[in-house]
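Long-time lurker. I teach an intro course on protein structure, and each term I like to show students one example going from raw sequence to a predicted 3D structure in token notation. This year I'd like something fresh instead of my usual example. Would anyone be willing to generate the tokens for the chain below so I can use it in lecture? Attribution to the forum is fine with me.
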Amino acid sequence: MEEEKKSFEQSYKLQSEKIARLRNALVIETDPLRKFQYEQQIKNEETELKRLTDRLDEIEKQLQSAQSIPVISEPKSIQQTNMSLSGQQTKRIPSLSEIPHDGFQASEVGANYFKLGSSLSSKNFKEADEETARIMLWVARREKEGWLTEQDIKKFPCRDLRTIDQFWLASSNGKFGFSVQNQIWIELGGKLGEHNCETFSRFCETVEWWEDSQYDLRAVCGHLPRHLYQYSYQAQEIHPRVGDSSVATQALMFLFYSLAQRLIVCNV
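-- Reply from a regular --
Happy to contribute to a lecture. Here you go:
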């Protein structure tokens, strides 16, 4: 089974590289017909990548089961995760060397997290914050739009979300990361299904999001990452159908709540 796993991992790597080349070609292509052909080809190749990922997951579970290692799985419903949130145990912080940069263990869609890991390893938090937004847009196929919607977050791959969060946790000794922000929100009274403006305002004050970004370990817990939210906030402010900052702030709040929910569903 180990040999089968290696074979599928190699196939996954080659398939990921193929999709990356096609997506790069799509970005620079100007002919409408060719763009359509690239989009269709990418969909087909992503279907094949999903097949490889699913098979690798099956093999991994079988190997872990044989070794009596518990497997982390995604909950079946929000209801299963909506109990005892404030009583979550402190999670073990991985070392940077433990976190995969690429391959099926790092991503469900062939993303490469080498640049993010490198930036965080060197404590270049500003670059890492920008890279986090960039890679999440890439994963969600929203590079052209430049911002994420609630629906994009709701279907964001759990494995990729976990990889991004682990890199932030490992580089900051548990001070930064989406899961840190989520825990702060929960401790301030945040609950799934409740879009409470007062709770969100207290959260923003606690993590100093109404202040200028601070890209070092002197920043308060949960201050980073934040560039993804700034992208979405600015996009809503300049969107032709959105005219005032209050609507942009509301869009920011709903995006944050969508990510909070996704983090809990994904066990991140």
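Some talking points for your students: The first helix runs from residue 2 to 28. DSSP finds ten helices and no strands in the chain.
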